Every structure is written in structure tokens, then in C-alpha cells.
């Protein structure tokens, strides 16, 4: 899992709000938070809003429809434009699958990553269009692995705020003496003491997924062995 890094994220969040506010005129007036606060809320603030709106889901269900409209191709600002701005070319959850956005010069929108709702939109419709709740990700992580699993800032790592490599590291477990020329001779496992990192690794099956990339680890082992000989 990697952090989504872009120096203009806050600017993009503000533009996201400016582009969508005209379409969200039905936003309830009795909401504790303004529409702008909800749409640009940072990862820590999302938690606060989610808790406040937990028993008011009916009032915000219309936001899911608005999100669905946002994901359909159109001339004006939509999910393709957001993905293009973010320029995230590898899924932040698995750090394996590519998530390129292609928009042709004539504004023909071809492909983009899916957007995972870090806080599931059915449980937290108020956050269906919140900028920092929209994680550009691959189909496998978004739909197959995570689905509607309950995530929060307290249970999992939000790629907008943190990176897994700050709290977890790869550990090489040598199985037998063939480890320096065979992928069957070792195992790779992510090690962490951080509970949220443990949950993220489990939800996205990262340990299983990275077993398919042991060939890269083997290359590294060979490279290091060569350096040692020099
Ligand atoms: Zn992924």
C-alpha cells in the first residue's frame, strides 16, 4: 500500500467541491457540516462526519445517486477528470495493478481507475462524494477484495494520509538452501505491529498477492549475492 502523493491535493479537493456544488443543491440544510466541509474533509475529519451521520443515512442517500452521475462520462467535470488530475498510475492498495487514466486530446474519455469509497457509500452516503474518501484503485482491490467491508480511519490505513511502508516491512523467511536460485526456497511476508496495517494487509490479501512476485525478490537476492562477492 502506497501513499497518494501530489502537492496539489488540497487544491484539487477545493476544485472538486467547486465543480460539484451546483449539482448538490438538495444538500440538507440541517446538516452539522457545510457541503464544502463534507466534500473537502481530510481523512481524520471523515471519521467525525461518518459518526455524526451514522443514524441519518436516509437523508443523504441522494448523494449515492449524485456519485453515480459523477462516474458517468460527460463533457464537464467527472470521475475521469478527477482521476487524470490525481495521476495515480498504480493502485495504492496493492501497489501492483496499473490504474492509468486515458483521455484523448478531443476530450474522449477512454479509461480510468475505479474509485473505492474508503468509508463504504451505502453505510455512509454522506461521504459518497468526499474527495479524500475516493481512492483511485484497481478493480481487484475495490470490487473483489474490499467490496463493502467496513473501513475507518481507526481500523485501516487511508492511502491519502499514510503509507504502509512507514509501519510495515517485508520479512524474508528462508525455507531451505535453494533460496538463492529458487522461489520455492523462501517466503516473503509483511511484518507489522500496527493493527490498522494488519487489517489492511488482510483485507487486500497482500501477503498472498506478493507471493506472486517472489521472482523479483529472487532477482534482488541474486543481485545482493553478486555485490557481496565483488
Ligand atoms: Zn489494487
TrEMBL record:
Source superkingdom: Bacteria
Identification of the protein by name: HNH domain-containing protein
Amino acid at each position: 500500500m502506497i501513499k497518494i502523493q501530489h502537492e496539489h491535493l488540497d487544491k484539487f479537493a477545493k476544485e472538486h467541491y467547486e465543480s460539484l456544488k451546483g449539482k448538490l443543491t438538495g444538500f440538507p440544510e440541517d446538516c452539522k457540516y457545510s457541503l464544502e466541509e463534507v466534500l473537502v474533509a481530510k481523512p481524520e475529519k471523515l471519521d467525525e462526519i461518518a459518526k455524526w451521520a451514522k443514524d441519518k443515512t436516509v437523508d443523504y442517500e441522494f448523494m449515492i445517486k449524485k456519485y453515480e452521475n459523477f462516474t458517468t462520462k460527460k463533457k464537464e467535470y467527472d470521475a475521469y477528470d478527477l482521476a487524470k488530475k490525481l495521476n495515480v498510475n498504480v493502485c495504492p492498495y496493492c501497489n501492483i495493478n496499473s490504474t492509468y487514466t486515458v483521455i484523448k486530446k478531443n476530450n474522449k474519455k477512454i479509461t480510468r481507475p475505479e474509485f473505492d469509497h474508503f468509508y463504504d457509500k451505502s453505510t455512509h452516503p454522506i461521504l459518497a462524494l468526499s474527495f479524500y474518501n475516493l481512492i483511485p484503485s484497481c478493480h481487484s482491490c475495490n470490487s473483489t477484495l474490499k467490496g463493502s467491508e467496513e473501513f475507518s480511519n481507526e481500523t485501516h490505513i487511508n492511502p491519502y494520509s499514510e503509507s504502509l511502508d512507514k509501519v510495515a516491512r517485508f520479512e524474508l523467511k528462508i525455507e531451505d538452501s535453494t533460496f538463492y536460485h529458487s522461489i520455492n526456497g523462501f517466503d516473503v511476508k509483511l511484518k507489522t505491529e500496527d493493527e490498522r496495517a494488519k487489517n489492511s494487509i488482510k483485507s487486500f490479501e497482500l501477503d498472498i498477492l506478493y507471493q506472486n512476485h517472489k521472482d523479483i525478490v529472487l532477482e534482488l537476492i541474486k543481485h545482493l549475492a553478486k555485490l557481496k562477492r565483488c
